[in-house]
Write a structure and sequence with these properties.
The complex is a heterodimer.
Chain A lengths: L2 H11 L14 H8 L5 H11 L3 H38 L3 H11 L15 E3 L2 E3 L6 E4 L5 E10 L4 E7 L3 E3 L11 E10 L4 E3 L3 E5 L3
Parallel strand pairs in A: 2-9
Antiparallel strand pairs in A: 1-3, 3-6, 4-5, 4-7, 7-8, 7-9
Chain B lengths: L7 H21 L5 H19 L2 H5 L3 H21 L22 H16 L6 H8 L4 H8 L3 H21 L11
Helix pairs in contact in B: 1-2, 2-4, 6-8, 7-8
Classes of the chains: A alpha+beta, B mainly alpha.
Chain lengths: ~210, ~180
């Protein structure tokens, strides 16, 4: 059976509850937690499981999800602007790449990145970077993280590379080729000892054209 | 005396318009209606106007403030509709207008749809939500983004979940090789 056939049959099976059935539905706050990725993952998956079987909840979820997704798109440039300023300052004192990394490893960038407050803070790269710097990705350690999942995306959202590491940096393998001038986005998800997950905001960078 | 230019309305429009357009673009893909969004953003404008007062204050509203206002207004909208027992927001599933294609037996199609739903219910909890999102029409990258998972992990769970689903359907006589060919 094709995926399309499965989809058509599944969507035909979804229930549309009347008003009297809605007490069985999760409260709006749970839907907000679901789209904002707040709270334990097991709870969010349970809410999602209901939402995807209930036409009424799904329309409410879609409204909230659109608000959340649009906000993350709108917030991204503002979140990266202070980073560009920080990069300029580091370059101005002549430290170059090494100093930039030292700053990233030793300083507190929480004021620079204001994504999820408890999430992973990305350090480098961001903005326009050279060839060497475009291949090494660093982020701040999160207490009690067992490991990190890394993902690099092209501008249209196509995955370019993903990997997992216990370290707080990752170097792209030589087989991954980045195109000069094109924007790329990357993010990191920390897997915590508790079994929960925390994710970073998305950082954007481009390889300088020669 | 002629009234002076209203500085509040243009400021409200500037602050809300960009965000509202993004929301519409994203929401349309999954069938969110313009009418629902119009109602929501009218409420957002009212709340910003009440809370911020002047055009200058409204214009200085950060995007995060507009986002929080919109989320709060959306939650209140959902609560009001649930309390009034109205039809909720736009039905995104295509039901009940989704009808079997020409030549298909409506009763048989309904039975098959119910069988697919039961088989999805029987999937492992870790794989089930991913499969449900996919069957509801979400793309792989949307699912991964929503769950905060890598595309590799999402793809893995989805493919395994779909394989499980087809296996369960086959056990129930549905699918290629079974008595009921679909």
């Amino acid at each position: 059976m094709t995926d399309e056939r499965l989809r058509a049959l599944y969507q035909r099976s979804l229930r549309i509850p009347g008003g009297e059935d809605r007490p069985a539905c999760p409260p709006p706050e749970r839907l907000v937690a679901l789209v904002a990725r707040q709270g334990p993952e097991t709870e969010r998956l349970a809410t999602l499981d209901h939402v995807m079987t209930c036409a009424a909840c799904r329309s409410e979820f879609e409204l909230l999800r659109s608000l959340e997704t649009a906000a993350s798109h709108t917030r991204r440039p503002a979140a990266l602007a202070p980073l560009a300023l920080a990069a300029s300052l580091v370059l101005a004192v002549g430290g170059g790449v090494l100093l930039w990394r030292a700053f990233g490893a030793g300083g507190d960038s929480r004021d620079v990145y204001r994504g999820a407050p408890a999430g992973v803070a990305l350090v480098h790269p961001a903005g326009a970077v050279g060839v060497v710097d475009s291949r090494v990705f660093t982020w701040r350690a999160l207490p009690k993280a067992r490991g990190y999942a890394f993902e690099l995306l092209a501008a249209d959202g196509t995955p370019v590379f993903s990997g997992e590491t216990a370290d707080t940096s990752l170097t792209l393998p030589a087989s991954v080729h980045l195109r000069p001038g094109e924007p790329y986005r990357w993010w990191v998800r920390a897997e915590l000892e508790s079994g929960l997950e925390e994710r970073s905001p998305t950082a954007e960078f481009r390889l300088r054209e020669r | 005396m002629e009234p002076g230019p209203d500085p509040v309305s243009p400021a409200l429009e500037r602050v809300v318009a960009r965000y509202a357009e993004q929301v519409r673009r994203i929401g349309r893909r999954h069938g969110l209606s313009d009418a629902d969004l119009d109602e929501l953003f009218q409420e957002v404008r009212l709340r910003l106007w009440r809370a911020r007062g002047t055009g200058e204050m409204i214009a200085a509203s950060p995007a995060s403030y507009v986002y929080r206002t919109a989320m709060s207004a959306a939650v209140d909208l959902i609560r009001r509709r649930r309390a009034r027992r109205e039809d909720s927001l736009e039905d995104l599933t295509g039901n009940p207008v989704a009808q079997p294609a020409a030549g298909e037996d409506p009763v048989e199609e309904a039975d098959l749809a119910a069988a697919v739903a039961r088989a999805v219910d029987a999937l492992a909890p870790a794989r089930r939500p991913v499969v449900r999102m996919y069957l509801a029409g979400y793309r792989l990258e949307e699912i991964a983004g929503h769950l905060g998972w890598t595309s590799g992990k999402t793809r893995n769970l989805l493919y395994r979940g779909l394989a499980d689903l087809r296996g369960l359907l086959l056990e129930r006589g549905i699918g290629p090789g079974a008595e009921t060919q679909l």
